[in-house]
User: Fold this.
Amino acid sequence: MTEAVSINEQNAVELTVAPSVMPELEDLVDLETYPIHDLESPKRQALVDQCRKELDAVGCCRIPDIIKPESIERMRQEVERQRDEIYWSEDSHNPYMTKEDTSLPEDHPARFFEKRSSGFVNSDILEQYSDLRAIYDNDVILQFVSDCLGIAPIYRWADPLGSNPYSIMDEGDYFPWHFDGNEFTVSILVQEPEKGGEFQYYPDLRTPENENLDEVARVLNGDYSKVHSLALRPGDMQIFKGRFSMHRVTPVEGKTSRYIALPTYMREPDSVNRPERAKQFYGRALPIHYEREANRPDDLID
Ligand SMILES: O=C(O)CCC(=O)C(=O)O
Ligand SMILES: [Fe+2]
Assistant:
């Protein structure tokens, strides 16, 4: 067992000890309410049907209180222990996380830049017996997400930094409008801010065949008539299609930081973030990001 002292810059000093065994599925998920391990269970079938309906209707589904409070608390403590390892960045981004291209018309959405400030605990530094790692590695959960999406097979993302990070936002931090490099994301709020930090998204704004640039530009210019807002609560699990639904997180208000776990999934096993996106989000690009740059999941700008 390793002992770690961590200092939360905004709050108090906390002493917690990293877990010494890998949590099992029943330590992570409320299996009584949600028997996702029992493929024959009518309860599971009803839940999957409900999730599919929600995903079709509003591009996102929410499963309340599926992750056990003890697991949420262990994840919160893991983030606190990792506070010194958080990659913080302040940068300007367009929705595609590409560099400015001045050959494009000025009103092209790729020329719309907003300032982001936030941090990530990248997937490669999760602790050995991390609950987030356990959630991501669990095949029952993978199968469940696949069934909810109605897409099979799906794969865990091959990106070593972005596959299952924690996203961290302190007071005043803002995560601007963007599409993700991966197709599907499960989000699990680990610590709720006092105010703000609201997840907003436009369901299925683009498809692999259609960038829908005019509509993207309308949203960026402030037309939020088709934008949905998600009330995230610690313990809930959301499944959303971040590559196709443009989304953002509004500024966090108050001294309590917003922590969220973000396991991600793909329809194919090999592609990773483009190097530029890896640098902008996670602070560095690794050899794999350059080696696989030509290997894209679709022809979207990114
Ligand atoms: O913090 C969230 O809810 C989502 C963050 C996000 O969109 C991302 O990391 O790509
Ligand atoms: Fe995102």
Summary: The chain is about 25% helix and 25% strand. The first strand starts at residue 3 and ends at 7.
